[in-house]
Amino acid sequence: MSHSVRLLVRHNSGAHEIRRCFCGSTPDPQPPRLSTPHSCGGPCSRVRESGCGHPCPLSCHPGPCPPCQITIRLPCYCPRQSIIAFRCGLDRDRGLDRNMSCGDICSRILPCGKHTCQKVCHAGGCGDCPIREAARCWCGKSEKELACDEGDAQESFIEGEVPWVGRYPCDQICERYARFVTIFHLSYVL
Predict the structure, then answer these.
(1) How far apart are the first and last CA of the chain?
(2) Range of 56's domain?
(3) How many domains does the chain have?
(4) Which DSSP state fits 118?
(5) pLDDT in tens, 147-186
(6) Alpha-carbon separation of residue 98 from 89, 148, 155 (angstroms)
């Protein structure tokens, strides 16, 4: 589209053709000497195809506007908020999403409240804690691996033994479990 914009206006006296400059801002442009013919000579006022909102730096010109060259600085996704600099028009013109990752470990606190995210800096939530750890049952006889925030943590103790944190009821009904349940219910009542 290297031609100026043409509008046809009808008056009572007949048809009159109005030419507009390439950027569409000036009717019947009268370019200064040594300017591009059909150009208004002013700054290009067209909206970029990428829709970024930054103005075209060229004066009124034929053809499409070049990709936006403005450098934008935005923080990355992780808590460090490292500044990522990029040229505005590059990713949008290619139809790509911007990757605002700094490349470091995310380190956000996970929902468990004990561990941090070990993924590379990423958009969106971190998800559940992937760490699994050995946990004892309430009576202290059995042990199995649970996700770190799984189970109902209860401080458990039996007289004469070192207290522990039990996180689940075991399948065994034993003398220790019966004693623990009795102590647990009594401490709950008091």
Answers:
(1) 86
(2) 1-62
(3) 3
(4) -
(5) 887 878 778 777 778 888 888 777 776 666 555 555 554 4
(6) 11, 34, 48
